[in-house]
From TrEMBL:
This is Uncharacterized protein. The keyword Chloroplast does not apply. GO terms for molecular function: ATP binding; long-chain fatty acid-CoA ligase activity. The keyword Nucleotide-binding applies. One of its GO terms (cellular component) is membrane. Pfam families: Retrotran_gag_2 (PF14223). InterPro entries: ANL_N_sf. Keywords: ATP-binding, Nucleotide-binding.
Length: 378
């Protein structure tokens, strides 16, 4: 059995056996790291929502790192520490007869949720199957297949994604974004036409964001995830999430949003800083400040962060046009509450663009003054 090594603690990775012993160990780890409060799921009154999100994500990371890959697959959809531990209790602690009936009911009533990807839906279905198997209730492959098919919408089609080179004319198999439509697909967000149109088109097809291909016999295989891609002025396609993931390794960066458009030839970025790292750097440089945001606005701080981002980018082998040429530093975290994150903690790009519109405009203005070629005038 593998183990997870910590500075002072070493525990065996949980592989599905001896849940009680692993549960005891992981509670001890979270207690020693002062993350135990997340198991209760109750935010302390004096703690901000942003700090609570960060605390819970730290605890969630500790728990996930203590799991074997075969076990971690079953909880990929859990985004909170308390929810993850409850899911494990349902799977590995001996359930009651009432709980068994609940699991069977959950399986029979499993349907593709509004806005969910096909991958997420299948993972949720398999999770219920795994929980039933763990309490001695098994299904043969044919019955599992029938139950899964009955949980899917009535109609499925593939839509071309030319920016990722996926089309319905691809050979030997058609490829594209998986779209579904049917009576169990939700009809839209209540009194929110804009958000509805983000996932439902004019013909009520739900765009899942998953890339699939049709195999012989009408089988559908998921091969990729539709990425947020845009084009710069010179025609280069940019996948911002790839760049943001690279910059996440920068010591100054807690969160990052990379932006570009077809009117500009370079990228800019907004970085929510790691306050401890930035303050420590300021102290070492003898820089005085009154508030964290004041320090974020200091040109010396921006230059230091951008230099570190450049170094990390080179290490990640980013291409020249994938480097952010300017950065704005902010102290306020991106959160669900301020509308910048989805419930799965991904950046809401349209909302982030609007939220940081002034900062983006200012960065491009500064870049165009230093290098007029950065801006394309129509």
């Amino acid at each position: 059995m593998e183990s997870m090594a910590d500075e002072k603690i070493k525990i065996e990775k949980f592989d599905g056996s001896d849940f009680g012993f692993w549960k005891m160990q992981i509670k001890d780890v979270l207690y020693q790291k002062e993350l135990y409060q997340t198991l209760l799921g109750e935010k302390p009154e004096k703690m901000s929502d942003a700090d609570w999100v960060i605390l819970d994500m730290k605890a969630l990371g500790v728990v996930r790192l203590s799991l074997a890959k075969s076990v971690a697959f079953n909880i990929v959809n859990e985004t909170a520490t308390r929810g993850l531990m409850k899911a494990f209790s349902n799977m590995y602690e001996k359930p009651s007869a009432v709980n068994n009936m609940f699991l069977i009911s959950q399986l029979v009533n499993t349907r593709m949720r509004e806005g969910a990807s096909v991958t997420i839906h299948i993972n949720q279905f398999n999770l219920v199957i795994t929980r039933l198997v763990s309490v001695g209730i098994k299904f043969d492959d044919e019955l599992q297949a029938l139950l899964l098919l009955s949980s899917l919408p009535d109609k499925i089609k593939l839509v071309d994604v030319p920016e990722m080179n996926y089309t319905s004319k691809d050979k030997p198999y058609p490829r594209g974004e998986i779209c579904v439509r049917g009576p169990i697909v939700f009809q839209g967000y209540y009194k929110d036409e804009g958000q509805t149109r983000e996932v439902l088109d004019e013909e009520s097809w739900l765009h899942t964001g998953d890339i699939g291909l049709w195999l012989p016999g009408g089988r559908l295989k998921i091969i990729d995830r539709k990425k947020n891609i845009f084009k710069l002025a010179q025609g280069e396609y940019i996948a911002p999430e790839k760049i943001e993931n690279a910059y996440a390794k920068c010591k100054f960066v807690a969160q990052c949003f990379v932006y570009g458009d077809s009117l500009n030839s370079s990228l800019v970025s907004v970085v929510c800083v790691d306050p401890d790292v930035l303050k420590e750097w300021a102290t070492s440089e003898g820089i005085k400040y009154e508030t964290l945001q004041q320090l974020c606005n200091d040109p010396r701080a921006r230059a230091a962060v951008l230099a570190d981002m450049d170094a990390v980018g080179r290490e990640a082998q980013l291409r020249g046009f994938e480097f952010a040429k300017a950065v704005t530093l902010v102290a306020e975290p991106f959160t669900i509450e301020n509308g910048l994150l989805t419930p799965t903690f991904k950046v809401k790009r349209p909302q982030a663009k609007a939220y940081f519109a002034d900062a983006i405009s200012q960065m491009y203005d500064e870049l165009s003054r230093s290098d007029p070629a950065q801006k394309i005038v129509l």
